[in-house]
Amino acid sequence: LTCISTGGYSTHNDSIASFHSPYIKTILTLFMFIGGVSFSLIIIAVRQSWREFWRNDVFRTFVYTIGVFYVMVVAAIIYRHHYTGWQSITIDPLFHIVSAMTSTGYSAGNWEGWGILVLTLTFFMMYMGACAGSTTGGAKLDRLLYLAKNFLFVVRKYVRPRLLTSVDVNGQHINEERGSEIAAFIFIYTLLIVVGGGV
To answer: At residue 122, does pLDDT exceed 90?
Structure first.
């Protein structure tokens, strides 16, 4: 119940590490991932076609982001000589990444020992969050995806001033007013983190 809702509560002080079960971690990773997907997208996919998942820009970004973080965390584990078996480079890093990105907060072991790189990446994972329309925290990938696309749009506009294009997310045009609201939200969200972290 605290997994699909990305609440993260456990019946043990050591969180999920107390169970010592790769099967539990695998199941929890799957349901945390589902909890990080937009509920409206899940409903659309169930009613229409499962292909709707991969047609969604934000869902693809969610999957790709997890993949990139996974490669970096595994590299850090190997570099820091924390390889202790197949779980340490498969289930454990994936569990940690999905838990951090969905703001579930489950812990399955001493991931702090994986090094400063993983600690830094974990901060960015929590900052980014998962998809809008889910129960996760963070800035949400939808907003960050818009900012990235808008940045590329501005760069292309400077290079080719006559270029006629727009910033679209999931096939929907984001007008300037909506874009300003997203930028303002990200700015205030980031400012609160910086100020709160410095107090």
So the answer is: yes
Quote the pLDDT of residue 152. 86
Q: What is the mean pLDDT of the chain?
A: 88
CB 132 within 8 Å of CB 41: no
pTM over 0.70: yes
* Cβ atoms of residues 61 and 141 within 8 Å: yes
Q: How far is CA 118 from the centre of its chain?
A: 15
CA distance 187 to 147: 11
Q: Is 145 exposed, middle or buried (0-12, 13-18, 19+ CB in 10 A)?
A: buried
Instruction: Return left, alpha or beta for 16; rule: phi > 0 is left, psi -120 to 50 is alpha, else beta.
Output: alpha
CA 124 to chain centre: 9
CB 137 within 8 A of CB 126: yes
CA angle 30, 35, 38 (to 5 degrees): 125
How far does the chain reach from its first CA to its final CA, in angstroms?
34
Half-sphere exposure of 68 (CA within 13 A, CB side): 11
- Quick one: which of 52, 36, 55 has its CA closest to 44? 52
Report residue 94 as tokens: 């994936």
